[in-house]
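JOB MANIFEST
job_type = single_chain_structure
chain_count = 1
residues = 220
[input]
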Amino acid sequence: MSDRLTATLRDGVEDEWRAATDHRFTRELGAGTLDGDAFARYVVQDYAVVEELTAAFAVALADAPSADARRRYVAFLDTLTDAENDFFERAFDAHDVPERDRTDPDLAEPTAAFRDLLGRARREGGYAETLAVLVPAEWVYLAWASREATDRPADPLFDEWIELHAAPPFASFVDFLRSELDRVGASLSPRRRERVAELFDRTVSLEVAFFDAAYATEEI
């Protein structure tokens, strides 16, 4: 058994972790069978999270303990605001997403909840609490994208989204985030460690709900 805090946190939410990383959405995305409307709904909601996600990473950058750590955050923020932003714009165009849905969409419940979680983690906690949300948010994507990267879909947007989250630089960044949480977690009080576990758990649960929301218009 690993003695890494992040592995312990993941193992503590094993069922939800499996539900997030082996979700119908990720499987259909990887197979290239995902409905175009479901993908459009997903990218609209995902883009609505980017502002809060960027703010959370900016807080982590400010709290980072070393110049090397700050460089890692700066590089990722550049990807988030450049390469990923460009992806969203092209995905919107390809799926004829209306302008209002690009800039001011109606938020699905998981989207609003995830934005709130990111905001509270960075405003009400410290470096550890911010990482407790950022680590699972990015690690879930690395897990499912790494699996789906072995047999890529024909749809260029689906393929690109997988590649962004399965590429070695992203994997390295996720390991860096985990290492940071492992390091700061070692000196946390029991109360703060419990709060970190709660935030990690909540983030994974919201990832499941976020993928579910892509199918929200389907009849049950």
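[summary]
The two ends are 40 Å apart (CA to CA).
The mean pLDDT is 95.
exit_status = 0
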